Amino acid sequence: MKAFRVTGTFDDPRKIQPFSIEMAAEDEASVKEKVVSTIGSRHKMKRRQIQISKIEEIPADQVESHLVKYQIGA
C-alpha cells in the first residue's frame, strides 16, 4: 500500500469547507473513492458536492497519521 495526501473542498450549506486528508490505498482511483466515501458519510455530502483538487503520493517518513503509518507498514 501507498500513502496519499488528498486536498480539496466540499460545499457545506453555510460555506465552502477546505479539507486535507491522508489515506492508504493501492492507487489514485482507490484513494479518490475512499475519500469521497469518507467525507460523504462524515458530513452528509453528496459526491457532486466534493471537489478534489490534488492527490499526491507521499513518502512514509512524511506521513502524519498514525493509522496510515500502520496501514503502510512504516
Task: Sum up the structure in keywords.
74 residues; alpha+beta; Ubiquitin-like (UB roll); 2 helices
Explained architecture:
The structure is a single chain. By secondary structure, this protein is an alpha+beta fold. It has a single domain (2-72), classed as Ubiquitin-like (UB roll). 31% of the residues lie in helices and 39% in strands. The protein contains two helices and three strands. It has a three-stranded antiparallel sheet with strand order 2-1-3. The model has no long low-confidence stretch (mean pLDDT 94).
Question: What's the short version?
Answer:
By secondary structure, this protein is of the alpha+beta class.
Largest pleated sheet:
3 strands, antiparallel
Shape: elongated
Tally of extended strands? Answer: 3
Report the portion of residues in β strands: 35-45%
How much helix is in the residues? 25-40%
**Number of domains in the coordinates?**
1
**Tally of DSSP helical segments:** 2
Task: Provide the gyration radius in Å.
Answer: 12 Å
- Provide the CATH top-level class: Alpha Beta
**Within the CATH hierarchy, at the fold level, what is the topology?**
Ubiquitin-like (UB roll)
The whole-number mean of residue pLDDT values reads: 94
| N- and C-termini, Cα separation | 11 Å
The strands making up the biggest β-sheet line up spatially as: 2-1-3
Structural class: alpha+beta
Low-confidence residue ranges: none
* CATH 2nd-level architecture: Roll
Secondary-structure element pattern, one letter each? EEHEH
